[in-house]
Amino acid sequence: MDGIAGTAGTARTAGAAGPAGTPGTPRVLRAMNDRAALDLLLQHGPLSRTRIGKLTGLSKPTASQLLARLEAAGLVLATGTSEGRPGPNAQLYVVNPGAAHAAGLDVTPERIRAAVADVTGRTVGEFELPTPGRHPAQPVVRQVTDALDGAVKAAGLARDDIHRLVIGTPGAFDPNTGRLRYASHLPGWHSPALLDELAAALPMPVEYENDVNLVAIAEQRLGAARGHGDFVLLWNEGGLGAALVLGGRLHRGWTGGAGEVGFLPVPGTPLVRQVTKANSGGYQALAGSQALPALARELGVTDLPTGPYAEAAAALVTRAAAAEDGPHLRFLETYATHLATGLASLVSVLDPELVVLSGASLTSGGERLRALVQEELAELAASRPRLVVGDVHEHPVLRGALESALAATRDEVFDTSR
User: Fold this and answer.
1) Whether the Cβ atoms of residue 152 and residue 236 lie closer than 8 Å to each other
2) Mind giving me the DSSP string for 270-282?
3) Counting C-beta atoms within 10 Å of the first and last residue's C-beta, which end of the chain has fewer, N or C?
């Protein structure tokens, strides 16, 4: 799960070191060509033998042998023929969706959202388990298995059909202790035995990732950061956080806490000590979703949206982004300054190529908020990264969990050298 660069469709060059085996041996070269063809089928959809041969550089006989081998292994299916071109219709092939399945979980204090995807990336089952209250009615292991089983049932599968599960949570599991850190607001998830209990309860490999890191994976694979190896993703929804991608890889830090920028001391707010106990810090208090209603009231906004704070904050930003003048516009401009204040520290240290703005309290401001933050950041930092609004809007944490689980699953299932 370390690397997030390298999307499906990157053809591999025969002759280099490959999967298991000795570099350059026929078995390894065949496996490399197999994987290149499978990646191309994932990227482009149905392809003919001739088209696969051209894209991989393989001869027609070799491409035919490759497809026969993959079809016999259950990895590709013949699906119709090409039409509308001169000459005889050609047989088309696709990756077999049922060759493998992976699952993802998005965990918050209020609910666990689960989904199952087939190996092509299509979501085939979803389920949401409400988990309200500071004292969970069910143990965490039961919550996880119930949420997973709900999505598995919706997909028409059994639990044993899932090759890999990735769980996204606020904070991060410290690799040195196995305990969840930076997420005191997630009840029941802080037992030192939790990871062992989950491993014993689930039949598939389970991996854990910070929720904002998963949003970065989704944006890098599917959205605004596609093709970028150095970027920062700033998230503002239930909390304020960041994901750091350096050289194409997620940077997690020694305890998994890289990107916990909500704790960052910034000008304009009191200095918070013992931030993990307070579960807050300067940047969170300055620009986090929870701070936005108070900021709007200070600037004269009277028609504040109601409801859960994250949804209310997003609605407030949406209204402000549509305002031509008055208190709403002053609020949007001040919010942009507050966002740029924290971002200035990040970009001054990291000098990223790109900053992706994600989470409802950022994306609801659209291009207008993005431009204001870009303008303010140019005044506050010497580095001048390009700012973009995230493209993955529907359940981005869950989508990132699925993408992460699918990447590892494909590496396993598509390795025909085994």
Assistant:
1) no
2) PPPSSHHHHT--H
3) C
How would you classify the pairing of strands 162-169 and 91-95? unpaired
- Two structure tokens written together for 148: 């997973």
Confidence of residue 88 (pLDDT cuts 50, 70, 90): low
Whole-angstrom distance, CA of residue 96 vs CA of residue 73: 10
Rounded to whole angstroms, the Cα distance separating 109 from 210 reads: 14
d(CA 410, CA 35): 9
Confidence at residue 87, expressed as pLDDT on a 0 to 100 scale: 56
pLDDT surpassing 70 at residue 176: yes
Torsion of CA 102, 103, 104, 110, to 10 degrees: 180
Kindly write down the DSSP assignment for every residue of 176-193, as one continuous string.
TT--EES-TTSTT---TT
Q: Are 145 and 120 in contact (CB under 8 A)?
A: no
- What the block records as the tokens of 182 is 């930076």
The answer for residues whose C-beta is within 8 angstroms of residue 247's C-beta and 6 or more apart is: 229, 230
Look over the chain and give the mean of its residue pLDDT values, rounded to a whole number: 90
Distance from C-alpha of 210 to C-alpha of 213, rounded to nearest angstrom:
5
Q: Which helix (H) or strand (E) holds 102?
A: strand 101-107
Distance CA 128, CA 146 (A): 10
d(CA 103, CA 6): 20
Query: How many CB atoms within 10 Å of residue 13?
Result: 11
| CA gap 192, 178 in Å, rounded | 6
Residue pointed to by tokens 């207008």: 368
pLDDT in tens, 57-68: 999 899 999 999
Concatenating the DSSP letter of every residue in 324-348 gives SSSHHHHHHHHHHHHHHHHHHHHHH
Q: How many residues does the chain have?
A: 418
Contact 385, 352 (CB under 8 A): yes
Q: Is the pTM of this model over 0.70?
A: yes
pLDDT score for 185: 84
Q: Which residues of 382-412 are buried (b: 16+ CB within 10 A; e: fewer)?
A: ebebebbbbbbeebbbbbbbbbbbbbbbbee
